[in-house]
């Protein structure tokens, strides 16, 4: 069960090698979390991540999970919930893709969409049902400011995150009053392996800063978290710019 501040004792991470997810897990372990499941494709990186978290004192398990195989999600994730209550699910897997390449290769573009949206819908619904059955828990969904308004530079990725964001908001409304809390996290540019080599955007942030924002959001039972917070105002302005002006911006 969560403590009086809304922080979890048990955590399931979907996307077990995500730098943002692991920064969040480390922060929660330092507070109260004692049991962690890292779900992802089997790999040395997944095992290394598990070992690092064990070194912090947590009981850590790895789970073979593939976002692109929705038919397996119910069985795979069901086994985790069968082990006991899960206080928090962190949905953090995603694929940035390569916009220029993906425009030329529709199959690659579809892979981005299937990972970021279709896989998340499947896993999110499976976890939401399990959280509702146990009567409590939080589902934290890593969205992106890229989903607020599609930009020429990354509209394939942005459109997939827009779908995910809308899905998560709707799911949160559907679960309101059931004891299950859904929180959407919208980071801006985060300095990770995934963004290495890309031009850094204004208000860039770090996995650790996102983790701090997630903790604060859990304590406040927030429904939406922006990282950094100033992006709420920036994106509100960009969202309402006339399209002709928006397409000429150097973003």
From TrEMBL:
NCBIfam families: PRK07904.1. PROSITE patterns: ADH_SHORT. One of its GO terms (molecular function) is oxidoreductase activity. It is an enzyme of class 1 (oxidoreductase). Gene3D superfamilies: NAD(P)-binding Rossmann-like Domain. Belongs to the short-chain dehydrogenases/reductases (SDR) family. This is Decaprenylphospho-beta-D-erythro-pentofuranosid-2-ulose 2-reductase. It holds the Pfam family adh_short. InterPro entries: NAD(P)-bd_dom_sf (IPR036291), Sc_DH/Rdtase_CS (IPR020904), SDR_fam (IPR002347). Keywords: Oxidoreductase. Its EC number is 1.1.1.333.
């Amino acid at each position: 069960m969560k403590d009086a501040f809304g922080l979890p004792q048990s955590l399931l991470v979907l996307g077990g090698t995500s730098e943002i997810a692991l920064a969040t897990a480390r922060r929660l372990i330092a507070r109260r979390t004692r049991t962690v499941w890292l779900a992802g494709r089997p790999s040395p990186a997944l095992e290394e991540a598990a070992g690092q978290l064990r070194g912090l004192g947590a009981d850590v398990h790895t789970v073979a999970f593939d976002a692109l195989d929705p038919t397996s999600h119910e069985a795979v994730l069901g086994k985790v919930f069968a082990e006991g209550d899960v206080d928090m699910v962190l949905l953090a897997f995603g694929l940035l893709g390569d916009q220029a390449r993906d425009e030329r290769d529709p199959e690659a573009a579809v892979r981005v969409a299937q990972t970021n949206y279709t896989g998340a819908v499947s896993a999110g619904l499976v976890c939401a049902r399990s959280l509702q059955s146990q009567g409590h828990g939080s589902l934290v969904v890593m969205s992106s400011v890229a989903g607020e308004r599609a930009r020429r530079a990354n509209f394939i990725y942005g459109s997939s995150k827009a779908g995910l964001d809308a899905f998560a908001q709707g799911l949160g409304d559907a679960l309101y009053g059931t004891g299950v809390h859904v929180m959407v996290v919208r980071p801006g540019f985060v300095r990770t392996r995934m963004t290495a080599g890309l031009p850094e955007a204004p208000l860039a942030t770090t996995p650790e800063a996102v983790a701090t924002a997630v903790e604060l959001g859990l304590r406040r039972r927030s429904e939406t978290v922006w990282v950094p917070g100033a992006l709420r105002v920036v994106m509100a302005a960009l969202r309402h710019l006339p399209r002709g002006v928006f397409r000429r911006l150097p973003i």
